[in-house]
Amino acid sequence: xxxxxxxxxxxxxxxxxxxxxxxxxxxxxxxxxxxxxxxxxxxxxxxxxxxxxxxxxxxxxxxxxxxxxxxxxxxxxxxxxxxxxxxxxxxxxxxxxxxxxxxxxxxxxxxxxxxxxxxxxxxxxxxxxxxxxxxxxxxxxxxxxxxxxxxxxxxxxxxxxxxxxxxxxxxxxxxxxxxxxxxxxxxxxxxxxxxxxxxxxxxxxxxxxxxxxxxxxxxxxxxxxxxxxxxxxxxxxxxxxxxxxxxxxxxxxxxxxxxxxxxxxxxxxxxxxxxxxxxxxxxxxxxxxxxxxxxxxxxxxxxxxxxxxxxxxxxxxxxxxxxxxxxxxxxxxxxxxxxxxxxxxxxxxxxxx
Amino acid sequence: xxxxxxxxxxxxxxxxxxxxxxxxxxxxxxxxxxxxxxxxxxxxxxxxxxxxxxxxxxxxxxxxxxxxxxxxxxxxxxxxxxxxxxxxxxxxxxxxxxxxxxxxxxxxxxxxxxxxxxxxxxxxxxxxxxxxxxxxxxxxxxxxxxxxxxxxxxxxxxxxxxxxxxxxxxxxxxxxxxxxxxxxxxxxxxxxxxxxxxxxxxxxxxxxxxxxxxxxxxxxxxxxxxxxxxxxxxxxxxxxxxxxxxxxxxxxxxxxxxxxxxxxxxxxxxxxxxxxxxxxxxxxxxxxxxxxxxxxxxxxxx
Lengths: 353, 302
Description:
The complex is a heterodimer.
Chain A: E1 35-47, E2 57-71, E3 74-82, E4 87-96, E5 103-111, H1 132-137, E6 145-154, E7 162-170, E8 187-197, E9 202-214, E10 225-237, E11 248-259, E12 266-278, E13 283-293, E14 301-314, E15 317-327, E16 333-346
Antiparallel strand pairs in A: 1-2, 1-16, 2-3, 3-4, 4-5, 5-6, 6-7, 7-8, 8-9, 9-10, 10-11, 11-12, 12-13, 13-14, 14-15, 15-16
Chain B: H1 2-18, E1 21-25, H2 28-38, E2 42-46, H3 61-68, E3 72-75, H4 85-91, E4 104-106, H5 140-157, H6 162-187, E5 194-197, H7 203-209, E6 212-216, H8 227-240, E7 244-247, H9 254-263, E8 266-269, H10 283-298
Parallel strand pairs in B: 1-2, 1-3, 3-4, 5-6, 5-7, 7-8
């Protein structure tokens, strides 16, 4: 992967008169430009599904990333998500990397640190689709994205155990999840993460999340809150001697949604367990089992099973097929085949582990 | 009471002297050279192990802990660490080790870097490094440059240890000069010997020790062997009577072994880094081990 990030500070609001133009190498003007990348996500679907009626073929997302150092104190990352007919800022935030007390702050729009899967961009999900927990309890396929402030601090633990507490405050609007009737009705999230190397080849990543925000049954005078609790676990096995090209990863998440409503509160639960196994340098197989109630009507629940086969022609492209069967609360069972091609151009920065 | 205060006072004064400079490096090779130069004034930790593919290191949060307390970060640069180090540095909460700051050392600076592209590079060429080949520490002359850079940086961060670092650097350089004579003599009979390597990791090694790299098992950097390219390599080895195929320890030997079976060439696991096997304990041991293995593999082949 290649990336080029400008480092030197740049005066955005120079007070002095600009110098007279001089002849410079044309490349000079590019030194401080951000790294630019585009990741295309093509999805084709076969089978019949009246509930989640995805198109037969779509360029589901084109993610444009612009990433650079702002100044000696911060960096900025923008991820613009283009669908075939619209565009949105999936993430756009500044990260302040030079704060005291082991703090790391992000300001802007970002994927919320609720659980593990919700933090991942579409192109790094281990499946071509989102799990039911996200669809039913975190606002839909896109998951929970918030605009606000995030502050994370390392919490010392004995030994070489990584531990981090993240506190986040967001505007009270989040599509499909929160709807604030008043400006002051905000959404909050707290996430605590522990990571431990159990051996050189095995590590365990465990997290707990608690969030709440105003739901769409609120009125200006009577705000109804939804509480979300989550637990996530990721266990990885990856020998460092990569010549064998064998590794495995197990993921599990559990979410509880307690949605207060004027008449009757809804308490729904959802979970998934998935596993992926690396067969060779470029081949992976995986499976996922999932079940989730629906947030607005917890009496309704969906469930599913899926198997995946993934091939990486190179680091910069990926072909994945998924065979999934979902049973919906409406009594419909859908069996579908999903075919995904992802391809990256440009300098896309590495993602956090 | 006075005695207690005196002892406490002495301990407090001694504490800064006892505090070691914490050095984190991306590779064990830099940690080894830093150990030689820094002696007991520093403590080192390498993120990637010597038997690990340095292109693919997971950005594990446990590394964030190491980086958050580091006084100095030594990297190979040339984008070798681009896939994992930037997010680790950002999350380290340690401003000292950000690129451009005092605690950041790009070990490639001043080294003889080969294969700097002179034309436009694209990914049609495979996973090329647009700033040059990053496996430059495999030339001991570059090891000398790296040691000097580390000594200068340690002296800047820990001025009280300058004398010690200079003395250790002189000892390192003297030993390296002596070892280079030994290594060069050992490899002299094989100057001009054509070899094939799995990945393009060895241009600096070849420049110093004079074997000629005639081809690679990978058709392009980072792209696994294809049947047509493997056939080309088989024909190349047969045509040129190439005796050796060098394979880094983190690549699958299936294709090289198959090529060897069809050509009579010998496949030799060749270690690019300290720690590749337990016997390679330091930077000198890296060349001792590899060159002995090379000579042993060449016996009866010349």
